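Deliverable D2.4 — example input (structure tokens):
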């Protein structure tokens, strides 16, 4: 199974880019992993939030095939412990899907169409993080899940 992480918009902060890259590189040792940044919508600053969210949603769905498992990173989603998330990943890997896509939304979240298409929603906390911060937090959790599945001494509980 391949894992694709879709992210809406570029990261402006070099310190975040650096941290995210570190975990993305590590992830490649555990599973076929690709991270894709969806390009910023032109003139986004002049648009109403609803319009921008809709356009970002269309862009997300263009990158999704019928056979994909689509999982949204969303404050309202299911909360796991790190070990629970590793079990979730194991189930996904055994589940037979060719591609598992995680998506981190833009500053305004996801439009209804994306929620309708999604196979699941995962929350990292009931608190809301910036869409930039979530990249780093999720990349580390995905890496942690992989080390748990491999019985490596990274996670301690
Ligand atoms: C700033 S949040 C969007 C906030 C809010 N949903 C809205 O509509 O304004 C941007 C993105 O970061 C991700 N995100 C933020 N906090 C999260 C959390 N606690 N768990 C999972 N994803 C989160 C989600 O993908 C969300 O779409």
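Example output (designed residues):
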């Amino acid at each position: 199974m391949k894992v694709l992480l879709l992210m809406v918009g570029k990261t402006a902060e070099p310190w975040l880019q650096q941290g995210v890259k570190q975990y993305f590189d590590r992830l490649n040792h555990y599973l076929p992993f690709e991270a894709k940044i969806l390009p910023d919508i032109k003139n986004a600053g002049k648009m109403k939030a609803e319009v921008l969210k809709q356009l970002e949603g269309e862009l997300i769905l263009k990158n999704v095939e019928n056979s994909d498992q689509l999982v949204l990173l969303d404050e309202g989603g299911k909360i796991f412990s790190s070990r629970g998330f590793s079990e979730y990943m194991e189930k996904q890997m055994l589940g037979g899907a060719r591609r598992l896509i995680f998506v981190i939304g833009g500053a305004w979240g996801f439009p209804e169409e994306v929620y309708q298409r999604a196979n699941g929603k995962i929350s990292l906390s009931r608190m809301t993080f910036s869409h930039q911060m979530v990249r780093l937090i999720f990349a580390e959790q995905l890496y942690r899940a992989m080390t748990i599945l491999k019985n490596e001494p990274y996670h301690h509980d």
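The chain has a mean pLDDT of 96.
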